[in-house]
Amino acid sequence: MLYSMLSKNKIKLINSLSLKKNRDEEKLFVAEGVKIVSELIDSNFELVSIFAHEDFFNANNIDNVIEKITVNESELKSISNLKTPNQVLAIVKLPAQELKMNDITNQFSIAFEDIQDPGNLGTIIRTADWFGIKNIICSNNSVNVYNPKVVQATMGAISRVNVFYTELDTFLKQSLEFGLKIYGTLLNGESIYNHNLTDKGIVLFGNESKGISSELQKYISNKISIPSALFNKTESLNVSMAMGIVCSEFFRKNL
Q: What is the DSSP string of 190-246?
C-alpha cells in the first residue's frame, strides 16, 4: 500500500535510529540512497518501510516491504542523515546473526580490535565484498555496523558481508583450537610480500591509533607487516587501506 503522508511519529522514529541504543531497542536501522536500498531489497534483509520519491517506486518493483510512503524533497530532508538527501530512505530490521566457528574454518576472515571510525568500517566492508570475504569479526568495543555513516560507506556491501561482534580474546583462542592460522598486522612483522600466505585463517587488525593490544598479540601465529619505502616518514597506514593491501596480497597468492 502506498501512503502520501509522512507522520511526525515516523520522523521521530527515523531520527532516533541514529543512536545505537535506539537501534538495539527497536531492532531497526536506517539505509539511504538508491544503490544501497536497491541492494537491500534484493537481499535477505527485511525492509519495514521505504520513504522515496514517486519516481523511485515507479522504477522499482517492490513487493517485499511492509510500508511504502511517497515523500517530497523537504520531507526526505527532514529524515535524512545526508547533507544532500538521495531519493530514498529505508527502515530495515536488524538481522539475527550468530557467529559459528564451523562457518569460518574453511574460509579467509578478518578481525578488528576496537575499530572506531565509521568511515573506516564502511570502507572495510566494501573492500571485503570486493575480495569475496564473507565474515568480519569485531571486538565489542568497535563502532556499530548499523551506524548510518557505516551503512552509507559500505555502498550496499553490507547486504553481502556478515559483521559479528564478540570478545576477541575468546574468539581467537577458539580459532587456534580449530587449527586456524591467525595472522596479525604488526610493525615488527615479516613483510607480507615474503610470507607464505594461506587461503584460510584470520587476519587481525588493531585499533586505528593503538594497534593490536598485547592481550591479543599472544594469539598471533604469524606476524606480518606492509613494508614502507625507505625514505617514507609516515608512521602507519590507515587501517582500511592496510586491510585492502593485505587482502589483495592474500588473494594474489591463492589464485
A: EETTTS---SSEEEEE-BTTTBS-HHHHTT-SEEEE-PPPTT-------HHHHHHHH
